[in-house]
Amino acid sequence: MASTSDIRNGLCIEFNNDIYSVVEFQHVKPGKGAAFVRTKLKSLTTGRVLDNTFPSGHKIDVVRVERRQFQFLYKEEDFYHFMNNETFEQTAILENLLDNPGLLKEGENVEILFDSAKEIPLTCEMPANVELEITYTEPGVKGDTATNTLKAATVETGAEIRVPLFVNIGDKVKVDTKTSAYVERVKS
Q1: CATH for 65-125?
Q2: Which residues, 6+ apart, have CB-to-CB distance to 145 below 8 Å?
Q3: So what's the pLDDT on residue 142?
């Protein structure tokens, strides 16, 4: 058992019969009344985010999680198959546990959070950025670079992202996995 003074970003707790990760927190000590902790919690099973306020000193159940490195192998129906980089055992994870599965290419390394007591996967965290090759995009018009205009492009995984007009087929780009946004063109 822990208390609200132990709350920090990334802490996994059991709350309302579900496992949540603390996304944001703020200790508040108003001039009048008791102190409290305002939190933003993300469910590791459904992905839903909720706001909750705990009174100061409230007891919370901390869930012990382990982060393990896995390599993405292939997708089969709704399951994504991964291999543990140390033991070479394979694990299948449902698509809804992944943040942005459309940007995941074969051979990519990810971190999977496991509930260490039950040995079940909770969520899969992709790297912050991935490098992908553009397989299709409309050609940019010469001289049309005065604005920050973006065009649709398809990457090697089949996902569609928005890129600047100067990006062409065959270019490698860095993509933010949280927002699917173009970051920069990768020099070859």
Answers
A1: 2.40.50.140
A2: 164, 165, 166
A3: 65
